[in-house]
Please model this.
Amino acid sequence: MDLGLRGRTALVTGSTSGLGLAIARVLSREHANVVITGRRAALAEQRAAELTGAIGVGLDLVEPATTAAAVTRAAGTFGAIDVLVLNAGGPPPGPAAELTGMSMAESANVLLLAQIDLVSAVLPGMRERGWGRVLAIGSSGVQQPIPGLVRSNVARAGLAAYLKTLAAEVAADGVTVNMLLPGRIDTGRVAALDADQAARRGLPAESVRARSEELIPAGRYGRPEEFADMAAFLCGDRASYTTGAQIRVDGGLISGC
Model:
């Protein structure tokens, strides 16, 4: 299936590893021009060198100057940004009862405020050209809060509300805005969360994973490539009538409708 991404320019934040890297790889295979970003510019450049039609740029979501520089570099190399994939690593785990305003502010800056600023930087051009894709990588915690991940739950829910509001405002301009919700995908982040839970409970990490898999109707963790394929579809022409949506890629993990 041709997704209509040939020649489109896609900027993917947090794409030197995990889900972001998996998405960048699929977009490259679909012949998009891909801008791989991460806090370590050298690693971003290394990842980009592995792909066709890609560049690597340093971008730290808490440093506005790096965001502006990444957008400028992308436009200077490939042309205006057509596809923006918002992806950021999750904050440390912790219970709601121990949450403080200061710790929440730090997480909200990365997972909400900085991402809004990045959308604001590329959205006007998308609207003028009559085509654009904004896709945020959220979490199943947006729809079913995950115990012990209060900062992620709160910040990503805020981003979801912003994106849903935005989607209605720009749909007539040919810009779609969606959020993709991963469940237990086999990434380094999920392995670290399993290890943290295992340490707190005095259990082997393997037993924590096994218990998690029992709760997933599909009976396993997802593969990054499975998640990335759905992301690429939402970034392409074929998904032009899908906007304002939260789409789960979770093997049936979330129990609500």
User: Anything to note?
Assistant: The chain has two domains: 9-183+225-248, 186-221. The radius of gyration is 18 Å.
